[in-house]
């Protein structure tokens, strides 16, 4: 009996010893994992940078192709004016690939979007209205429209809207006031491309901006409203397009 116990104790000791020998140092393993994460992030950034460079090369190639076609048409016209016309490139030079968001806010049925309300305007049309009362302390109200991020990664977006402001207070910061902007979340940080609105009172005017969506974007939303100010702002004819120059 004592002999069997001794054998059992010895076996357990060997198992424990073996486990201790094969067990990895937690600190070293953590350090190795962190190093691998850094290397992975660096490789991902290399891929994103390469994609951005490729986007610029494709644009240059398209512009060069257009220039070559125009030059060829000029040469052909000089040789035979009766048969060949000079190609005139379109002034806008932009092709709409997809209408991502199209909201006129006129004649829409159902509840108003969260953060704003659909109201009748003196011209007989409706508009999206966002109000922040001067007594409010937060002074921040926006209507958010999530966009289909997966199919917009790497795309060029063109955003347009009509806006009208009434007694919008002076923004305390340069990025405050009326808001017509995108919120683009990437693996590194959040980006806020926007059209400048500011404050004051103004009649209907068109606002627009364009933006190249990063290849590491994982969330895109469009925002309309007021930030860090009080007052009233109206919007109509909102449109977001994926375009190609």
User: How many domains is the backbone divided into?
Assistant: 2
Q: Briefly note the CATH topology name of the largest domain.
A: Jelly Rolls
Mean of pLDDT: 80
Give the overall shape.
flat
DSSP strand count: 10
Q: Tell me the CATH superfamily of the largest domain.
A: Galactose-binding domain-like
Model description:
- This protein is of the alpha+beta class.
- The longest helix is centred in the N-terminal third of the chain and has 54 residues.
- The N terminus is likely disordered.
Short description:
The chain has two domains: 89 residues; 150 residues, Sandwich (Jelly Rolls). The chain contains two helices and ten strands; from the N terminus they run ααββββββββββ.
List keywords for this structure.
2 domains; 6-stranded antiparallel sheet; 4-stranded antiparallel sheet; 245 residues; alpha+beta; 37% strand; 10 strands
